[in-house]
Amino acid sequence: MKILHMSDLHLGRRFYNLSFLSLQKILLQDVLQCIDTQEITVVLLSGDIYDKPVPPAEAVTLFDWFLTQLAERDLTVCIISGNHDSPERLQFGSGLLQKNHIHIAGAFQGKLHTVTLSDAYGDLQIAMLPYVKPMQLAACYPEQSFSNLTEGIQYVLQQTPPDPNCRSILLYHGFVLHNDAMPDESESEIQLGGMQLVNDNIFQDYDYVALGHIHKPQWVKKDRIRYSGSLMKYSFSECLQQKSVTILDMQEKGNCTITTVPLTAQQDMRIIHGPCKELLEHAVASEDFIRAELTDLELIPNAMEKLRLVYPNVLELAYVAREQNRQPAAATEAAHVPEQSLKELLIEFYQNVYHYDLLEKPEQLSRLEKLLEEEELA
Predict the structure, then answer these.
(1) CB count, 10 Å around CB of 274?
(2) Comparing 44 with 111, which gets the higher pLDDT?
(3) From residue 304, how far is each of 46, 87, 291, 299, 310 by CA, in Å?
(4) In angstroms, rounded to a whole number, what is the distance separating the alpha carbons of residues 256 and 314?
(5) What is the pLDDT of residue 203?
(6) Per residue in 246-292, pLDDT tens?
(7) Above 50 in pLDDT, residue 193?
């Protein structure tokens, strides 16, 4: 049985008010081609189908098209909701879709949604656990008391344990740790006190855990627990990542070959670095999404406009050398700062922040002294 694992489509995502929908559709077409080439029979979608709980109509239309394409191929599709999805909206029509072998676990209702498939090697049990918060677990199990999310998720899994004699897969959307090592974080959500973190040792009864939530494709536990990563690059923090889908060739229990197939968007997201003059002189016209990191110490007039002549999709501009030369506020402790006059503090401020030496500008320095004198008289 060949299985494709993917997650974090974030359909409808906008970045600096630019829509990714056209790029997302092309990538989904690439996924369909991969499904045909690899002779996939099961598709796993591990959450964050949409970028917003109320997605734009165009995003819903795109996902409808994708599901229709999957249904026409007579595949089994298993989908869970992520933290960006509205669980109730995602599972709308799930009863009808199930007749086309499309199974959706949107809103968590206190137990795992399970699907059992069979092939020449026996049964395969697929358990589906959508994104769930501690408060939801507390509401579903009022008689229980969980000190953290790991205990709550473990309790959920124990209510519907996998058959040890069958192959088993779990879909889950959330932060999963291996030996307390923090995974690469692509999500903006702040995890206060580690409440949303789950330890990987509670998944030991499953042959494979198909994770969603982290955008970088990576293993939590080699050959067993994996983040497939997002469909495409959604921020400049992801510009060095190679996006992919994960392919499982699952035969008898204990015999599973796992590979990846790369996904490359037609417009890349990357960072260019150097002096503005050199970036312009050596530029190659490109439609890629660009963050320009300038090493110039002086501000360049109309830098963004100049860069956009060759890079029309420059979205961010930063003067990294100027930032590095600034004195961090936290680097100076009050106990080690000698007493200074207001005039001295202002001169130092202009030097550290703006690289402007008032001591070399007698006219401006005289104006400053006059203002300070007037302030003292007042």
Answers:
(1) 16
(2) 44
(3) 38, 41, 10, 11, 11
(4) 43
(5) 96
(6) 999 999 999 999 999 999 999 999 999 999 999 999 888 899 999 99
(7) no
Question: Could you give phi then psi for residue 24, rounded to 5 degrees?
Answer: -65, -40
Tokens of 188: 């903006």
Q: Are 350 and 358 in contact (CB under 8 A)?
A: yes
Other CB atoms within a 10 A radius of the CB of residue 358 amount to 18
8 Å CB contact between 261 and 291? no
Mutual angle of helices 21-38 and 57-72, in 10-degree steps: 10
> pLDDT per residue over 11-64, tens digit each?
999 999 999 999 999 999 999 999 999 999 999 999 999 999 999 999 999 999
- Token pair in block for residue 250: 């699952």
Instruction: Write out the H or E segment, with its range, that includes residue 88.
Output: helix 87-90
**Which among 270, 267, 250, 266 is positioned nearest to 258, based on CA atoms?**
250
Q: What is the DSSP string of 284-306?
A: ----SEEEEEE--SSPPTTHHHH
What are the distances in angstroms from CA 246 to CA 50, 249, 328? 20, 10, 43
222 pLDDT above the threshold of 80: yes
Hey, what are 268's tokens? 């890349």
Measured between alpha carbons, how far apart are the two ends of the chain, in Å?
Answer: 84
SS3 80: strand
Read off the pTM.
0.81
Mean pLDDT along residues 332-344 = 64
Distances (CA, A) of 111 to 107, 136, 157, 173: 10, 12, 8, 15
Largest Cα–Cα distance of the chain, in whole Å?
94
Backbone angles phi, psi at 262, to 5 degrees: -65, 150
318's tokens: 């930063």
Which helix (H) or strand (E) covers residue 240, if one does?
none
> Which residues lie below 8 Å from residue 181, measured CB to CB, with a gap of 6+?
none
